[in-house]
Design goal:
single chain; 420 residues; alpha/beta; Nucleotidyltransferase, domain 5; 3 domains; five-stranded mixed sheet; 15 strands; Sugar kinase of the NBD/HSP70 family, may contain an N-terminal HTH domain; kinase; transferase; WH-like_DNA-bd_sf
Length: 420
């Protein structure tokens, strides 16, 4: 599917699909070295990507852009029409010859998505172009069975708002790590959902396939999908909210690691005498750099202030409250210090930031950069960029996960059955 999301290796697809794609790094970032029987699926996903990025587009232009034979393109387009990914539109008048039909993504095919947090979930309906058609925020209890029931009720409510549309599936962005083989949570310190089959239970309730993905990975998928990191092969995304998550693009490949556990920098110990983390260990980076850490810093300075939310703390800082500013400054310093291990280990070109940190980026950016640069081994270090509205990125990323995992290439490579 057009998931500029998980294309890990460009070289094999270049040889088998297109001699010289115009945006090779982004467009082919998720194509692994494939055996010849997967070539058609790779080509299919390549064609779909060109449709997404250049729509409306004719078969002739698809063949020219992709480097594939016109007969191959035509066959793939027919397959995509049967699978409901694309639709034909108007014809275009030309100087001579047959009028070409324009191909676009099917805006009647929708995806249900959710950004799941420890206390609430943001639900939405997204189309194949990443446009948001509906949105709903709902509180979540700690009990996973009750939470799944609430998620299903909310999604059914959103689905009812779009009669006549087809829903491809459900994507969940979650604050934990997901085993790609089982689609189940294997590490989720800030939610008590590890031993519960959220995806399976929600699929039963909705009658749709459900895909789970770590929130940081979902954000990076979104950035890859919409081309915000074009031309980059080494990127780390840090998601900072209740916890600290990370996603890694290394040499054009999205790194999952064994059982999908790669990228847990938030649970690396930086101070053995530090506070106890939800993972059971003391002094994790998360305990110094997360939103919860900032709230703790403020409570230490203002013990009589009562319990605040992160949004309330940021509001105080905007109004020049000295203790709030000091708490955010301390958090920013700890974020920057933690980045030193990331730059030393991975040497990324860019580090992207998502989550609560983006709402006070103008204040925190210089502090984070100063602390990060203080630990550089050599060179100028990575660029540090905020992706802006992290919530939208998480929801778009959840949609990208569905598109990726329902693609021909992914299904062939992972032994999944085609959808009905």
């Amino acid at each position: 599917m057009p998931r500029n999301s998980t294309r890990p290796n460009a070289s094999a697809a270049k040889a088998q699909a297109a001699p010289s794609p115009q945006r090779a790094v982004r467009e082919l970032a998720y194509v692994e070295v494939a055996s010849s029987e997967l070539t058609r699926d790779i080509n299919r996903d390549l064609v779909l990507e060109y449709i997404r990025s250049a729509q409306p587009i004719s078969r002739v232009d698809l063949a020219r852009k992709s480097g594939l034979q016109p007969s191959t393109v035509s066959s793939i387009v027919e397959q995509l029409k049967e699978e409901r990914w694309v639709k034909e539109g108007a014809t275009v008048k030309t100087a001579r010859g047959r009028r070409p039909t324009q191909i676009s993504l099917n805006d009647d095919l929708l995806i249900l998505v959710a950004d799941v947090r420890p206390t609430q979930a943001v639900l939405a309906v997204v189309d194949l172009n990443g446009h948001f058609l509906s949105r709903l925020v709902t509180p979540l209890p700690t009990d996973p069975a009750s939470s799944v029931k609430i998620l299903a009720e909310g999604m059914n409510r959103l689905r009812a708002e779009h009669p006549g549309k087809v829903f491809e599936g459900v994507g969940l962005s979650v604050p934990g790590r997901v085993d790609p083989k089982t689609n189940r949570l294997v590490l989720v310190p800030n939610l008590k959902w590890k031993d519960y089959d959220i995806g399976g239970k929600l699929a039963e309730a909705l009658g749709l396939g459900v895909e789970l993905e770590n929130d940081a990975n979902a954000c990076l998928l979104s950035e890859l999908w919409f081309g915000h990191v074009d031309g980059l092969r080494n990127v780390v995304l840090i998601a900072i909210s209740e916890g600290v998550g990370a996603a890694v693009l290394a040499e054009g490949r999205l790194v999952g690691g064994r059982d999908g556990l790669a990228g847990e920098f938030g649970h690396i110990c930086v101070d053995t005498s530090g506070p106890r983390c939800e993972c059971g260990k003391n002094g994790c980076w998360e305990m110094f750099a997360s939103s919860r850490a900032a709230l703790r810093y403020y409570a230490e300075l203002e013990p009589r202030a009562g319990k605040l939310t992160m949004q309330e703390l940021i509001g105080l800082a905007v109004n020049k409250d000295k203790s709030a500013l000091a708490a955010l400054e301390r958090q920013s310093e700890q974020i920057g210090k933690g980045l030193r291990m990331i730059t030393a280990a991975l040497s990324p070109e860019v580090i992207l930031f998502a989550g609560d940190i983006t709402t006070f980026w103008e204040f925190s950016h210089a502090i984070i950069e100063r602390e990060c640069r203080a630990g550089l081994l050599a060179g100028d270090g990575p660029r540090l960029l905020s992706i802006g509205d992290g919530e939208l990125a998480l929801l778009r990323g959840a949609a990208a996960v569905v598109l990726q995992r329902h693609s021909g290439y992914y299904r062939s490579a992972h032994g999944r059955k085609p959808r009905d």
